[in-house]
């Protein structure tokens, strides 16, 4: 029982950290919009990777909601960072 509780807490902490990682694209997006463009490749690859993880998490027999929630913001912010970097 103790290990299950630990894994549950760990998964939600990892989910929050992943969301924060993708929200950290906001300064890059702001810089892109201000004319200081960053390389668009990394956020595009992040968005594709996050899309694959979300599909995986939701399509498997026992859905993995923390994985889907952790990666969904990466799709949104990755695409916005990519588009604004062009």
Textual characterization of the structure:
This protein has a domain at 37-85. 83% of the residues lie in helices and 0% in strands. The protein has four helices and no strands. It is elongated, with a radius of gyration of 15 Å. This is Integral membrane protein. Keywords: Membrane, Transmembrane, Transmembrane helix.
Which structural class fits the helix and strand makeup?
mainly alpha
Assembly state (oligomeric): single chain
User: What do the pLDDT scores average to?
Assistant: 94
What is the rounded Rg?
A: 15 Å
The total strand number stands at 0
Q: H/E series, N to C? A: HHHH
Low-confidence stretches: none
Shape: elongated
Q: Count the DSSP helices.
A: 4
Major sheet attributes? none
Helix and strand topology:
Layout: H1 2-23, H2 25-33, H3 41-59, H4 65-85
Transmembrane segments: 7-29, 41-58, 65-85
Organism: Leuconostoc litchii
Protein name: Integral membrane protein
